[in-house]
Amino acid sequence: MRRENERGGVSLRAKVTGWLAAILLVALISIGIATGTGQWTVTLFDTLMEDNAACYAAQDAIKAETRAFERYVREPSQETEQAYTAACTGTEQSLAALPFAYEKIGEDRYARTWNLRQGYAGYREKRDAFLQLSPADDTYIEQMYAVMNLQDHLAEYALRLTQATLEQENTRYSRQAAGIRHLPWLYLTLFLMAVVLVALLIRVLTRAVVLPLLQLAQASRSIAGGDYTGADLPVASEDEVGRLVGTFNQMKHAMAEHLSTLNALHREEVRNLALEKDLEHTRLEVLKSQVNPHFLFNTLNMISCMARLEEASATDQMIVHLGSLFRHNLRTKQQEVTLEEELEGLDDYIYLQQMRFDGRITVEKKIEADPAAVRLPSFTLQPIVENAFSHGLKSCEEGGRILLRVWMQGTRLVLTVADNGKGMTPEELDALQEKIAQSEQTGRSIGLGNISRRIAMLYPDGAMKIYSRPGHGTVIRFEIPQQVRQEVADSHEV
Fold first, then answer.
1. In the predicted model, is pLDDT for residue 405 greater than 90?
2. What are phi and psi of 409, to 5 degrees?
3. What was the pLDDT predicted at 363?
4. Order of strands, edge to edge, in the sheet holding 463-469?
5. Measuring CA to CA, how many Å separate 16 from each of 11, 104, 243, 249, 419?
6. Of 26, 318, 29, 32, whose CA–CA distance to 194 is shortest?
7. Reduced DSSP (H G I as helix, E B as strand, rest coil) percent helix, strand, coil of the chain, to 5
8. Is 112's pLDDT higher than 70?
9. d(Cα 332, Cα 293) in Å, to the nearest integer?
């Protein structure tokens, strides 16, 4: 019942119990009526028989006393006297046994019973007075006939009482029998009610239990066959079966999600295997393409010396910055570096590009974070700036501008690289983002796709966004979560 109250519904158990209670109630009513009617009928007949028996007993007792009186008067002896005395005792007992409750027997029977009892009392006085006389007395015969007349009157009273009792009981029985004759129709009505309740119970159980279970069986067979696309089973109630159906629907969705997760993990595993193969291939290619740094730097130093001898200072500075850029790239083998280290390599690259474009493109840096304390993936800024030079500002005759801005937003490092170049149309921007997404899946990319993929691998909460408008330029924004290393911060403060 507690769960029923919590959910606001009625349990199946409560429903079935209610229907069974109703059926049982109808059955009990039928049994009660039948039992009560039978008991009432038996009581009625018992009362009728007892009342009639009492009346007949009184009649018989008066007759027996009259006969015993006649024998005793004719033949006075001890035997006839004893028989007469016993008859008188029997008469008094039978009269005393007559029903004498006014509310039970009614006015007529009460009056007749009273007359009979009072008549017998008067008769008893006359009888006892007569028995004191001697046969020789002058009034003996007269008194004897007077007693006999009283005996006749008592017999008449007893007869009338018996007749009145029979009439009363017959009237009562006839009145009650009219109601008894309607009992079969009542029994039939109650039986039909029980049948209707049973039929309704069967229907309720069919709709509430059988049909949902059949639907569950069919849906289970579909799931066993690997089909999770079927519609959810309807939850028609809030009872146990309804909760079972709801749980089944939840289980189906959970299994579908689990299967989808397993498929995704499988795809991820396949992709990781492909990435490992690509990584091995890349390592091999890197090894094949490596150049001896010592030979390279010696060659650059030799060219720089020649440039100084020829007084080509611009060429000399370009070689110096190129060497510095090579040293930075070769020295940096970590996945993650400080912003300070990244800016060192970027400065060398910017110098070379400005020399290339003859100063018609300016680069502005606005650093609002501690370069030594914040970290980002290595080789992040140079490809972005290079992309701005190569694609956004390459065709600019003059006035090209690149703005690098870095700041902290909570615990996230935000970097933006903006240019005022030609920008991209929405179609070109969508194509670029699609290309980046494909490169993230395959792992075969350089440039923006490579940076986006490395950020996603190193920082699950990191993000890269591209904004562009034709004729207004392009903005690339990075958000990189930071965990500031205390030792770096402390050393920077010193």
1. yes
2. -125, 90
3. 86
4. 361-368, 400-409, 412-419, 473-481, 463-469
5. 9, 48, 17, 25, 77
6. 26
7. 70, 10, 20
8. yes
9. 13
DSSP letters, 90-112, are HHHHHHHTS---HHHHHHHHHHH
Mean residue pLDDT of the chain comes to 76
Residue 126, burial from CB neighbour count under 10 angstroms (0-12, 13-18, 19+): middle
Distance separating alpha carbons of residues 141 and 162, to the nearest angstrom: 32
In this structure, the strands spanning 400-409 and 375-377 are unpaired
Nearest Cα residue to 470 out of 407, 425, 431, 409: 425
What is the reported pLDDT for 368?
Answer: 92
Domain boundaries, the chain: 2-181, 361-493
What is the three-class DSSP state of 462?
A: coil
Cα gap 435→332, rounded to integer Å? 28
The region that residue 94 occupies, defined by phi over 0 for left and psi between -120 and 50 for alpha, beta otherwise, is: alpha
DSSP state of 465: E
Nearest to 120 by CA among 92, 81, 89, 161: 92
Nearest CA to 358 out of 326, 403, 394, 387 is that of 394
CB 403 within 8 A of CB 476: no
Segment (H or E) for 318 = helix 313-331
Q: Which residues contact 348 (CB under 8 A, 6 or more apart)?
A: 321, 322, 324, 325, 328
pLDDT band at 386 (very low <50, low <70, confident <90, very high): confident
Looking at residue 5, what is its pLDDT?
A: 41
Cβ within 8 Å of residue 112, ≥6 positions away: 157, 160, 161, 164
Q: What are phi and psi of 482, to 5 degrees?
A: -120, 140
Q: Which helix (H) or strand (E) holds 244?
A: helix 240-289
**279 vs 220, more confident:** 220
- CATH 1.20.120.1730, applies to 2-181: yes
Residue 232 has what DSSP assignment? P
pLDDT per residue over 127-157, tens digit each?
Answer: 888 888 888 888 888 888 888 898 888 888 8
In CATH, what is the architecture of 361-493?
2-Layer Sandwich (3.30)
